[in-house]
Specification:
The protein has 286 residues and is an alpha+beta fold. It has helices at residues 2-14, 16-23, 31-58, 60-64, 68-113, 145-150, 153-169, 171-184, 191-210, 216-225, 243-251, 257-284; strands at residues 115-117, 120-123, 130-133, 140-144, 236-237. A hairpin with a 6-residue loop joins strand 3 and strand 4 (140-144).
Length: 286
């Protein structure tokens, strides 16, 4: 029974649950808790998918069943488990390799063409844009010359704080993990919802960090002034994701501690359920 429960749980967490979560805009007001919930749902879906096949090895009911249909079901489940694991590993290798190559190439171009100004790389570009290139030891914050002249000093300070918040929190690693999941599985598992929402949440988190050095009006004005700018692939840009929603969230910053705690509790429960289902057969076989 456990393999069937885990399989059903994997389908729910991969499809209907992310689709419903993506409609809950109120989660944007507690971005840290919402991010934890998205990570918990993704991890639980993978754990349930892998555990569905692995649990057949220790499920006594399946081991006692010697009929051909039971053996076929067990074989198919194990093949699916290996396929899921293989696609995750392959996608992780491909995404990680391509992202690091893109960033390394762009970093070399920035170092060659950009001017340095107080730790910021300034590119001679006619469109206002600001973005960061993550890296363990060679991170860069890049601003166009147009942004330097267009933005007021408080606006520029807020934008730079936004980009540095991305680098300090290593939001790129979170996005990389969800990109791996997005490429590893077919479209029907709703990974589009997860990747899109996580991209928005990391921007909201960086917006919140920027408010420690500036006003919401300054940051909102800067984001609108840079609305036409686009960060290159592999970079993270201040104006990169759903500006209208981000401005709406900036306008309503009332604390919501009860919602934050409830979302974190839900994340814990979502992750605990498949874990318990996977571990239970192993304990029962001892």
């Amino acid at each position: 029974m456990t393999p069937l429960l885990l399989g059903a749980l994997a389908v729910l967490l991969a499809g209907p649950v992310p689709a419903l979560m993506a409609r809950a805009r109120r989660l944007h007001h507690t971005p840290f808790s919402a991010m934890v919930l998205w990570q918990a749902v993704a991890l639980a879906a993978v754990l349930a998918a892998l555990g569905s096949g692995l649990s057949l090895v220790t499920d006594r009911a399946w081991r006692r069943a010697a009929e051909l249909p039971s053996l076929l079901v067990a074989g198919v489940a194990l093949v699916v488990t290996l396929l899921v694991a293989g696609r995750l590993l392959l996608s992780g290798h491909q995404v990680g390799t391509s992202l690091r190559a893109l960033r390394r190439h762009h970093r070399e171009q920035v170092d060659l063409l950009a001017d340095r100004d107080s730790g910021v790389h300034v590119l001679d570009h006619a469109v206002p844009v600001a973005y960061c290139l993550p890296g363990r030891s060679r991170a860069r914050v890049i601003v166009s010359a147009a942004a330097m002249t267009t933005l007021q000093p408080p606006q520029l300070a807020a934008v730079l704080a936004h980009e540095r918040a991305h680098l300090a929190a290593r939001h790129d690693l979170v996005l990389e993990a969800f990109t791996v999941l997005h490429r590893a599985f077919p479209a029907w598992v709703s990974s589009d919802h997860a990747l899109r929402e996580v991209r928005l949440l990391v921007e909201i988190l960086a917006d919140r960090a920027a408010l420690r050095v500036g006003r919401a009006q300054d940051l909102g004005g800067a984001l609108l002034a840079m609305a036409q700018g686009r960060a290159p692939e592999g970079a993270m840009g201040a104006s990169g994701s759903d500006l209208i929603e981000r401005v709406r969230v900036l306008a309503d910053r009332r604390p919501r501690p009860a919602q934050g705690v409830a979302v974190l509790g839900t994340a814990w429960a979502v992750l605990a359920l498949p874990t318990a289902l996977v571990v239970a057969p192993w304990l029962g076989s001892l």
